[in-house]
Structures are given as C-alpha cells and as structure tokens.
Amino acid sequence: GAGVSQSPSNKVTEKGKDVELRCDPISGHTALYWYRQSLGQGLEFLIYFQGNSAPDKSGLPSDRFSAERTGGSVSTLTIQRTQQEDSAVYLCASTTGSGNYGYTFGSGTRLTVV
Amino acid sequence: GEDVEQSLFLSVREGDSSVINCTYTDSSSTYLYWYKQEPGAGLQLLTYIFSNMDMKQDQRLTVLLNKKDKHLSLRIADTQTGDSAIYFCAGPRGGYQKVTFGTGTKLQVIP
C-alpha cells in the first residue's frame, strides 16, 4: 500500500479481555517495528521483525504480549488478559532492510482498557 | 537513565525561530533523526543526519550535530502555526536496526 496501515484506529476493551492489533506495512519493507506511546511519554520499543523473524523482542513488557508476522508482510500484536496499564497508543513502523533513512509510521491504534 | 533526552515544552511566537535540543548517549556512528507528530497521527520523518556531518539544511529546517557533546538540535526558521506539534529526536541503540526515541518536545506556536 501507499503507507503503513493500522487497524483498528481505536479499541476500547474490558479488563481481562484479549485484543489483537494489526499492522500492514508498506509493500516491500522488510523491517517492521512496534512501539507503544503512553500519555505524555516517549516511544517505548516493543519488538522488531526482519522478514518473519523477530531478532529483538526485548521490549515486550510481559508474557501477555506477543506478536507475529506472516508472509513478510502483515503483523499482529496480541495482548492477552488486558490490564489498565496497557492503555496507550500502539504504533507500527516499517522500513527497508537497513532502516538508515528512517521509518514510516502508521497512525496508531489507541487502546483503552476499562 | 534515558538514552535520548529532550526538554518537554517550547513556546515561540509565529515568525520567530524555534530551536529544539536533544542529547543522546550512544556514540555509534550512524544516523540521527527528527520526527514530527501532529495530534492523532503517527510520527512523520522530517530529516536525518549522518554522524560524520556537523550540519544539514533542508528549507526551513537546520540540523546541527555536536558529536563531542552528543548534542543534536533542530532549528525551524520562520515558525508557523502549522509547525505546532510534538518533535521527537531519535538515535541509535544497538545498531541501526533499532532506534531509540526521546520523550518528545511539544512546540506551541503563538500567533
């Protein structure tokens, strides 16, 4: 596609429910990143994919968080048993292999856990 | 502590110059970036500079890099109300595959 697409744009869920967030990167971009932005905070790195593999998942906050990428394209971030502290904007970005020239970000998914 | 630090807020009058500052800790020779985030949107890449450069100019934007002090700045000339946004500095961490972002500087432009 023309840009990085994320869905849904907004998600309100009850505490304890599971949620899936989707990222569709720019076609041909081999690297994909998930970041989390909490209110008034900077961007917190979650996980990095190169192709379908995740060489760096050091930022996932707990084992309730997981992510996968299939076909070197779409990625899904899953949060199980959501907690209120999971409320944030989840941003996805993609880039060509080296990433030297910066990332292209999606508009994010705003997750609210009530 | 944070790997990339920025002041949280800057207020300028329309037509003045804005200077947003950033300090970083990782001295890897690589690229450093400035991103802009408007309300409700993702981050948009504004410009980047390679660590062997001291300065880069792109229209109203000037990036200055002081490698010795690990200090990066973004100057916006003739600041307009449309420049109101949050500006993020981003630098290397563990190689180019992963970038660390600062906390962002909210720029308020007063008409």
Low-confidence stretches of chain A: none
Q: Provide the helix percentage of chain B.
A: under 10%
Instruction: Report the major sheet of chain A.
Output: 7 strands, mixed
The succession of helices and strands of chain A, N to C, reads: EEEEEEEEEEE
Percent of residues of chain B in beta strands? over 45%
Round the mean pLDDT of chain B to the nearest integer and report it: 90
Number of strands of chain A: 11
Structural class by helix and strand composition of chain B: mainly beta
Radius of gyration of chain A: 13 Å
**Gap between N and C termini of chain B:** 36 Å
Describe the protein.
- The complex is a heterodimer of chains A (114) and B (111).
- Chain A has 114 residues and is mainly β.
- Chain A is built from no helices and 11 strands.
- Chain B is an all-beta fold and 111 residues long.
- Chain B contains no helices and 11 strands.
- Chain B has strands at residues 4-6, 9-13, 18-24, 31-37, 43-50, 55-58, 61-66, 71-76, 85-92, 99-101, 105-110.
- In chain B, a hairpin with a 4-residue loop joins strand 7 and strand 8 (71-76).
- The interface between A and B is medium-sized, with 25 and 24 residues.
Question: What is the secondary structure topology, with strand pairs?
Answer:
The complex is a heterodimer of chains A (114) and B (111).
Chain A: E1 5-7, E2 10-13, E3 19-24, E4 31-37, E5 43-50, E6 53-56, E7 65-69, E8 75-79, E9 88-95, E10 104-105, E11 109-113
Parallel strand pairs in A: 2-11
Antiparallel strand pairs in A: 1-3, 3-8, 4-5, 4-9, 5-6, 7-8, 9-10, 9-11
Chain B: E1 4-6, E2 9-13, E3 18-24, E4 31-37, E5 43-50, E6 55-58, E7 61-66, E8 71-76, E9 85-92, E10 99-101, E11 105-110
Parallel strand pairs in B: 2-11
Antiparallel strand pairs in B: 1-3, 3-8, 4-5, 4-9, 6-7, 7-8, 9-10, 9-11
